[in-house]
Amino acid sequence: MPTYETIKETADERWKTLTSGPDPWIRVGTAMCGHSAGAFDVIDALRAELDSRGIAALVDEVGCLGICYAEPLIDVLRPGTESRLFFGNVTPEDVAAIVDKYIVHGVVPDDKVLGYLGEAPIQGAPDLQELPGIGRQQRIALRNAGHIAPSDIHQYIANGGYAGIHKALTQMEPDDVIKEMSDSGLRGRGGAAFPTGVKWSFMVRSPGPPKYMLCNCEEGDPGAYNDKGILESDPHTLLEGLIIGGYATRATNGIVFIRHGHDGPIDRTEEAIKQAYEVGLLGKNIFGTDFSFEIEVALTGESYVAGEETALMEAIEGKRAQPRFRPPFPAAFGVWGHPSTINNVKTYSYAPEIISRGAEWFSSIGVNRSTGTAIICLNGNIEYPGLYEVPMGMTLGEVVNDIGGGVPDGKQLKLLQTGGPLGGVLSSDSMAVHLDFDEMRDAGAILGSGGIIVGDEDVCAVDLTRVLVAFCQFESCGKCFPCRLGMEHLLEITERIARCESRPGDLELMRSVGTTMEASSLCGHGQLGFGPIRSALTHFESDFIAHIEERRCPTGSCLGPHIAPKNTRPYALDFVPGAQNG
């Protein structure tokens, strides 16, 4: 049975070869943002150029550095240098010049250079840390994203990977791990923000084996991609967090639940699991202890409700993804009737650093009862869309203006849609609101899984609300009447208002339907379904009044062909503010 020390020694040798060897180390971002921007065409051109010139180089695919607007990204570490040089928005046609000028001759090209990263300046290049999207991030869950190859477990280990589980297994009792997680203040990052340590403690005394730790990567929210971003960029941080959770709760098995069709996250997670088994970090008697743990991947179909924890368990069992009645709760009766604990990808991904560095370190970051960081997916009418991990307590204004560069084309910010389709709609007056679970809830929105869609002055709040309700109506599983019928009614009313054909009492009727859904729906989908409408009415009542009383759309958004004719049931997610989406 290999020890952690022998595994780490092998990993350190591998890292030394990459960073101090005789050949250039070239990293290309191939997460979703890079893929969609043409990164694989760039890699093909790069390898062809290197081969044609007979240049030996190490080429790795890495994940997302966060600055999605600059993809495809290439960074190069030349032999004998201490810093990496980054090139942004690279096309296959740019590759030859990059190879010739910088890789061969060490000359910084005139264009495509974003900056250098490292201790030693590179003459002719700015410091990449001066970019707000780099310098203002504080990366914990995403600490390795864009820096290591997700396909190479040794790169993860060389950068401190699996030190957390080694510490837990050799220096801590399971109850100590739960106390450390509780003391850290970590709250679930999937939307509910429930204290993680408390949640883990629920399953400790449940009988087993088997007992399951489940990881939710359904992530069907429009505008959210941070869970998939972690799996594409650094899947081992999830696996380590899952193993730590298994040890703390005396669980025996872990299941990573990913939406079917998301090939990048699926392939990289499965490869990471395979490598972890190969080096002895999964399976029987990990690090020679009496703790054993197994992990596998399970896929779901296109179902937003499958992200609800009991519906997730139903999907894993091969059933239709519909929520269960509770009690019994998952900690006592979960997947296949066995005790189960469900957390989000982000939640698990914090655990390795919390255990390695301590609860006090993590709790010192953030504000109030929202400790640590938030991983924000910034989209819409924004200058610099991207995937940014920032300290809790930063204001929405800092995220949108300082990191995201504000609204482009000289237009004014009108609204933010936060927390996914069950989240809220905030006005530009909310820029002083902090990234704080409780403060955002009090403001009429939720942080949710971290998606923030920015809308400029041309966005109609009624049109946006119609799209959110259309999504929620389509994704309702239909198991309970309040959600199934309530969503239908809300969609009918919002469509009438959008067509400027509203009836007297429509706003009061929406509020009545929404109140009933909140009180009697089976799961959060129905309970939160009225939230976007309530917040939109709070902040943009004038948009609704213009449609209802003046029979006009203030921005003209509701006059296009995408507004459904009467008596049709569209599923039209056609509101995508701005052309750039991370």
From TrEMBL:
Species classification: Eukaryota, Metazoa, Porifera, Demospongiae, Heteroscleromorpha
Tagged with keyword Nucleus: no
Domain NADH-ubiquinone oxidoreductase 51kDa subunit iron-sulphur binding: 462-507
Pfam families tied to this protein: Complex1_51K (PF01512), NADH_4Fe-4S (PF10589), SLBB (PF10531)
SMART domains given in the database record: NADH_4Fe-4S
Keyword presence, Metal-binding: yes
SUPFAM superfamilies: Nqo1 FMN-binding domain-like (SSF142019), Nqo1 middle domain-like (SSF142984), Nqo1C-terminal domain-like (SSF140490), Thioredoxin-like (SSF52833)
PANTHER family per record: NADH-QUINONE OXIDOREDUCTASE SUBUNIT F
Entry's Gene Ontology molecular function annotations: 4 iron, 4 sulfur cluster binding; FMN binding; metal ion binding; NADH dehydrogenase (ubiquinone) activity
Annotated protein name in UniProt: NADP-reducing hydrogenase subunit HndC
InterPro entries: NADH-UbQ_OxRdtase_51kDa_CS, Nuo51_FMN-bd, Nuo51_FMN-bd_sf, Nuop51_4Fe4S-bd, Nuop51_4Fe4S-bd_sf, Soluble_ligand-bd, Thioredoxin-like_sf
Family of the protein in this entry: Belongs to the complex I 51 kDa subunit family.
Keywords on record: 4Fe-4S, Iron, Iron-sulfur, Metal-binding
